[in-house]
Design a protein that fits this description.
Layout lengths: L25 H5 L22 H7 L8 E6 L5 H11 L5 E5 L4 H10 L7 E5 L3 H10 L4 E5 L16 H18 L2 E7 L11 H5 L2 E6 L6 E9 L7 E7 L2 E4 L18 E8 L2 E13 L7 E4 L3 H15 L6 E7 L11 H13 L7 E3 L2 E2 L5 E2 L4 H10 L4 E5 H6 L8 E5 L2 H8 L1
Parallel strand pairs: 1-5, 1-6, 2-3, 2-4, 4-5, 10-14, 12-13, 14-17, 17-18
Antiparallel strand pairs: 6-7, 7-8, 8-9, 10-11, 11-13, 15-16
Helix pairs in contact: 5-6
This protein binds thymidine-5'-diphosphate (TYD) and magnesium ion.
Length: about 425
């Protein structure tokens, strides 16, 4: 059935094949014993490093053998480029690149453009699942890329490539192959307009690791993040720049997210935030204008909309700054999406600075989470934020008092302005 008569959605029916094998005999069932956990051998994980530092950082130090990884992203963001570069740079491992989207000639041209000479890279243009399974069984490669899962096709499943049933079948079978052979299998997946990984959520449940490759079109930089990781952290970010010769790593990305204006502008605050264990200095901009609408507009790009509302409520209730008649727009420069609550203070200061049309002092960075009573709450790892600010030539750092107390005073070259409340933060620098 094409359309579900209950929910009205298209292409949601999944074929379940009925397995008519006999139930196993009781003897067979009895031979299946649970074990004490201590009796299970634990080999230390020998991770497969790609030699691309930013990629290895996001996976938690390299790919784990026998794992199935999904790399998802918008078309054209650079998924194929990243994986081809990873294949070509692999240390002490050989790679197999299975392409269902590009011909082998196109792959060759791309590899030349990336000036990689991949002698240990094997390629295969195929979309039929049985043939791919066979190729994987014969191949010596321990790193396999399948580009993309939406082109795979199994004739035993009666629906077109890219459909829920096909994608699920392919993922389940590839997982089997990965587990039984110990190969790392990375599948490419597309993201739909709504930002969902095309096909089903079920794909995310099957695989061990989900990586997202993102980039705003007007910018050349790309961000890689782990959404799910059975073998490592999520929240680590990897930064890349798309150049004419492929993706280049950006180990020091802070410079991207600051504008280097000599003149101080109102409505701009610099935040020392942390994504994973990586510090970043980002610029927050706000614009506050009298509203001509009955319901004023509020928008924030790159940060949680509900936190913006909370910050505005605190500004109104605790500091008497009423923005009820104003439209408000806020933005993280560079198109980055962040969820570190330490950004609260910068958002609040940018708003107040815009509202009063009064710039913050130059070379000043801030961090701190705002509580509902208007208190500044400490955030994690203040030391790392401080070092990053210092490295980028910041002179003054406004931070929660509780954080300042934990910093050892050695080798601090910036002036620390510890404050307990948002109101005190305002009087300290505005
Ligand atoms: P691609 O890896 O094909 O994207 P995806 O597989 O995610 O769809 O990269 C596509 C874009 O990257 C394309 O618009 C061209 C650009 N690009 C470069 O700028 N430099 C390069 O060296 C390469 C290979 C691609
Ligand atoms: Mg591609």
């Amino acid at each position: 059935m094409g359309r579900c008569p209950v929910c009205g959605e298209w292409d949601t029916f999944v074929e379940e094949r009925h397995d008519s094998r006999e139930r196993p005999s009781r003897e067979a069932v009895r031979s299946v014993h649970p074990l004490p956990l201590s009796a299970v051998g634990a080999q230390p994980l020998e991770r497969l490093q790609t030699g691309i530092g930013e990629l290895d950082r996001v996976t938690g130090g390299g790919f784990v053998p026998g794992s199935l990884v999904l790399l998802a992203g918008d078309p054209g963001v650079g998924k194929s480029t990243l994986l081809l570069q990873a294949c070509a740079q692999l240390r002490g491992a050989s790679a197999l690149y299975i392409s269902g989207e590009e011909s082998l000639e196109q792959l060759r041209l791309r590899a030349e453009r990336l000036s990689c000479a991949p002698d240990q890279l094997w390629v295969f243009a195929e979309t039929e699942l049985d043939a791919i399974e066979e190729a994987l069984a014969q191949s010596q490669a321990n790193f396999v890329v399948i580009d993309s899962i939406h082109t795979l096709y199994s004739p035993t499943v009666d629906s077109p490539p890219g459909s829920v049933a096909q994608v699920r079948e392919a993922a389940a079978r590839l997982l089997q192959v990965a587990k039984s052979t110990g190969k790392v299998i990375v599948v490419v997946g597309h993201v739909t307009k709504e930002g969902l990984i095309a096909g089903p959520k079920v794909l995310e449940h099957i695989v061990d690791t989900v990586l997202h490759f993102e980039g705003e079109t007007p910018y050349a930089y790309r961000v890689l993040r782990a959404i799910k990781n059975r073998f490592g952290p999520t929240h680590e970010l990897g930064f890349f720049e798309m150049t004419a010769a492929g993706l280049r790593e950006l180990p020091n990305p802070s410079a991207l997210f600051m504008t280097h204006e000599a003149r101080a502008e109102s409505g701009v605050a610099l935040a020392a935030v942390l994504e994973g264990t990586r510090p970043l200095l980002v610029e927050v901009q706000a614009l506050v204008t009298p509203s001509t609408y009955a319901v004023p507009q509020r928008s924030i790009t790159g940060y949680d909309y509900r936190r913006l509302h909370m910050i505005m409520a605190v500004l109104e209730r605790r500091l008497g700054i009423a923005l009820r008649q104003h439209d408000l727009f806020a933005n993280i420069v560079g198109g980055l999406r962040l969820d570190d609550p330490a950004l609260d203070l910068a958002v609040a200061l940018a708003i107040v600075s815009a509202y009063r049309d009064q710039p913050l002092p130059p070379q000043t960075a801030v961090f701190g989470e705002i509580g509902l009573t208007g208190e500044l709450r400490p955030v994690r790892l203040p030391e790392i934020r401080l070092r990053e600010a210092q490295r980028l030539g910041i002179r003054r750092l406004l931070l929660p008092k509780a954080n300042a107390e934990t910093l050892s005073s050695t080798a601090i070259e910036v002036e620390l302005l510890p404050v307990e409340r948002l109101s005190l933060a305002l009087s300290a620098i505005l």
